[in-house]
Amino acid sequence: MAKVKELEEDALTIARKEIASQKDANVKLVAELILVRKELAFQDEEKGKRAAELGTANIELAYQKEEKGKRAAELGIANIELAYQEEEKEKRAAELGIADKELAYQDEEKGKRAEELGIANIELAYQDEEKGKRAEELIIANKELAFQNEEKEKRAEELIIANKELAFQNEEKEKRAEELGIANKKLVFENKEKEKRAAELGVANKKLVFENDEKGKRAAELVIANKELVFQNDEKEKRAAELVIANKELALQSEEKEKRAAERGERTEELIIANKELAFQNEEKEKRAAELGVANKKLVFENEEKEKRAAELVIANKKLGLESEEKERRATERGKRAEELVVANKELAFQNEEKEKRAAELVIANKKLAFENDEKEKRAAELGIANKKLAFENEEKEKRSDELGVANKELAFQNEEKEKRAAELVIANKELAFQNDEKEKRAAELGVANKKLVFENDEKEKRAAELGVANKELAFQNEEKEKRAAELGVANKELAFQNEEKEKRAEELSIANKELLAFTYISSHDLQEPLRKIQTFVSIISSKEDKNLTENGKYNFQRIQLAAGRMQLLIDDLLAFSRIATTELKFEKTDLHLIIEEVKAELKDTISEKHATIEAIELCEANIIPFQFRQLMYNLISNALKFSNPDKPSHIIITSRIEKGSTLDNEKLSPGKNYCHITIKDNGIGFEPHFSERIFGVFQKLHSKETYAGTGIGLAIVKKIVENHNGIITATSELKKGATFDIYIPAN
Questions:
Q1: pTM over 0.85
Q2: Whose CA is closest to 534, among 13, 17, 18, 39?
Q3: β-bridge mates for residue 740, sequence order
């Protein structure tokens, strides 16, 4: 028995020594744990600093990327502007060239118009001379107006027909003018829609309008010339008819005189006087025939002049046609820019061709009239010969004529006719005065047109000056943009250098973070092996040597077991914290109801023990990392249960909704983004408001381990998970009034 007691005492001594050595080892372990905690706290501070630096670097990189994008956009815009300005320069140069050509063309037109004005003045002087001659002829022609009354009726009918034709032509011209107006309006609308082509189309339209005006004027001149030729032909026909009638009258008078000479042989003396009067009348008729010959020659000369003028008009029309064809060729070369202009030019070319055809028809008509005039001249010559023959016969029959009374009546009748012709001569003079007024008006219109051309030339010179100033401004802007582009290039190089530096620094920070995480993981993992041995040996001693231990020894072993358990919990939390930073982030669209139900099932016993109620109201789907968010909810709900008020059952309310960043009172949120706002509210013991930031730090505890167990890492894990979701978490509370945690994570 003594030996057994000695052995037991030896065993107890050994056990006590082992316990003492274990206590020393535990003290060392505690000291090591304290050092590890300090190191971890230091590492967390370093991580925080480096995370802040990484965040700052990321923000700077994002800002620099935005700046790069902006500058690239500015460079693109600048290049587009430079290209646009080059195009504008080319367009303006083309416009200047066109303006120069137009000015040269207008100068030529001015010269032509000046020549036309000179010719018109000469024509007016010639017409004044002709008026004097015609006045003399009218005095002679007044004697012949009796016969012209009948012709006037015929002419009135012809004039009615001609007026109808003119009215029809005017309607056609008005229709064409309306079509041209519509075409011009269409061109103006298309010019507004096509700003680049506006200058060319405007120039072409003005030129075409000018040419159409010229053509209209020349066509009007041809119409007037044709009317004059028709009028002159009518006059010739009338005079020829008058000569025929006069010849008939002379023949009739000769026959009457022969009869009366046979009946009245006694009135010889009176017949001699009558014969003298007849001889005088015959001389007058010969003079009139000579005047008619002169008038016919003059008409021939005028017809030749008009034919020359018509030929010149035809040449001018052909020239205009060639210019129109040249314009069409130029318009076809411009391609798609002037398709509408080509159509308009074709229509105008068609109209020009129609006008040329009409001009050709007028020329043919003029030739026909000239031929008819020649025929009439031949007939007039024949009539002159016949008149001479009749005059000879009248001289032979002078002895037989005894119709003095009839001759006297005839003379009286002729006097009355002369008075009528004098009245008609007054009317003709008024018509000539009216024509002179019309010519003066036309000369005034030509003067106004010349002034308008001078004004347009001044405007074009001003526009050319403005284009020159605009070109200088564009050159200055191009220089400024080139300078800016050079500055942007330098700034881009600086940004590229800064980005390279920041990327290097970010890589260094990333490497340091990985090393810290590796150190945390390895340290936590290596601490588990001696901790498991401590827990194993303590469990063996407690189970096998429980009877041999004193109450104090049992108490110390319980303390060791509790310390080892806390150490195990701390290591597990550290490992969980390190895993959160190292795991791959895979976001999924997840129903928060499912996560809450899983956490409630896991905490079922604690919920039952605390008589707690958990309400999940109006939870929405969120784009989250499911297993991390489950850990987040577990930590927050378990904290709410742990720090519940012992005097009343725990009541936890969880809500979520999608909200705009601008509606949330938090400066860290982007106003333009949508956020999933999750709220976890409890009725627990709460905490003082100034601890709202501190509670999210690693190893930060507001209560002693005797009051509330824990490592102080749970809320740090929660904050880390929220940061992994690019969100933020805030806490608000007051003592004895519960706590509220608000989580904001991007909805997308």
A1: no
A2: 18
A3: 681, 732
